[in-house]
Amino acid sequence: MIALINAVYTFLWGDLIQLPLPGGSTLGIPLLVLILVPTGLYFTIRTRFLPFRLFPEMLRVTLENNKSEDSGGISGLQALIVSTACRVGMGNLVGVVAAISAGGAGAVFWMWLIALLGASTAFIEATLAQLYKERDPLYGGYRGGPAYYLHALFTASKGKLRRYSIPACLFAASGLLCWCGISQVISNSVTSSFQNAFHIPPLYTTVVLVAVAAVIVLRKNATVRVLDIMVPVMAACYFFCTVFVIVKNIGLLPDVFARIFGEAFGLRQAVGGGIGAAIMNGAKRGLFSNEAGSGSAPCAAAAADIDHPAKEGLLQSLGVFIDTHVICTCSALIMLLAPQELTAGLEGMDLLQAAMSYHFGGFGIVFIALVLFLFSFSTFLGILFYARSNVAYLFGDNWTSQTLYKVLALVMLFVGGIASYQFVWDLGDVGVGLMTVFNMVALYPLAPRALQSLADYERSRQR
């Protein structure tokens, strides 16, 4: 089994093709980058550059209240908060650190670019989730996501109604596999950071983490209420701390941006092969962080009770901006505004902790531990919200299967807090990679419906 997971991981995330670069180096491109980047570019063109053209409309829709009082569902903004809880996770800290460690400051530019392209993909998949959503008899409101629009696509082509379709089952199973793997990664990251910051043994942190999570996720509709409070608070705290760092080092800001753009396109990096590392690490981390195209966020988007499908698409596009252009940029600036001689040779969390210590002294280590806890815990709550519709698709509408999956995720959360397994990290990456592949099977043939919805929405706004 481990050998199979490793083989699939290499196929999805390994360097599928090698492109030569000046200086004799090469640029390795994984399968998922080959899938997602052209897809983002294609949908950006098909939506007539939606991320730029309709950004003010995204902000306007965010302030609307579209939820029907008697629906029992969640609002479009609440669906955005749930998806943001998953997007704004470890990728915004650990992922950005990894990208800069391996690809230099130039990786930040490529993360920005990937997010701009991914926003259009996020619009298409979220709008489709709205178009193919259905009533949720267990939790109330609505449910849906890629499993449901994959089912509609393949059962319609057969000309008859069926309970299951193979591609939809494969997506749902991949999602549940991915989210179990991520549960272990979450708890391991939290316990490690608390041990470093507070010298608390991992067992104690794990017990508290699992107990608090169980109280929330085992209640019927507590998850959304908790995330409504938690996500805006944690994002705002992190953002304002970054503003403090920027103001404190305002004179260095032009040099930092010059470094980002210089290392993204510089001749020295091109000759030395560094530009390839910057592009690939920025692309990989950007794709992993904002989740556009993976099919995760549509599981939340489908639950929104909103008066036009395209509105939820716009909200989820905004979520990609929040994740990458706000939160990921905050992490990047915190690291890049620290003196290079202080961070030279450091990688991973050592790099982030050194930067935080420089900006905030001893409080920096404590702050990062608390932020990592909040980001990771909100991700765990969010992925269990995602899991609802996929469990229902595979096992039907019953509380037994819903509860058993939550218990399994809590067990994985506990196990991950006690020990770290590279296999589990790879399992999460394989799951999200397979989800992306299966999601793409539906996005291209069904995209015209999402584009029609966008055209209808724009016409209605002009009246």
List the helices and strands and how they pair.
Layout: H1 2-13, E1 15-20, E2 26-30, H2 31-46, H3 50-53, H4 55-62, H5 76-87, H6 94-103, H7 106-131, E3 134-135, E4 142-143, H8 146-158, H9 166-198, H10 202-217, H11 222-248, H12 253-265, H13 267-272, H14 274-290, H15 297-301, H16 309-336, H17 340-343, H18 348-360, H19 363-395, H20 399-418, H21 422-462
Antiparallel strand pairs: 1-2, 3-4
Helix pairs in contact: 1-21, 2-7, 2-21, 4-16, 5-11, 5-16, 5-19, 6-14, 6-18, 7-12, 7-14, 7-16, 7-21, 8-9, 8-21, 9-10, 9-19, 9-20, 9-21, 10-19, 10-20, 11-16, 11-19, 16-18, 18-19, 19-20
Strand tally is 4
Number of helices: 21
What is the average of the pLDDT values? 81
Class from helix and strand fractions:
mainly alpha
What form results from the Cα inertia axes?
Answer: globular
SSE ordering = HEEHHHHHHEEHHHHHHHHHHHHHH
Give the distance, in angstroms, between the N- and C-terminal Cα atoms: 58 Å
**Largest sheet report:** 2 strands, antiparallel
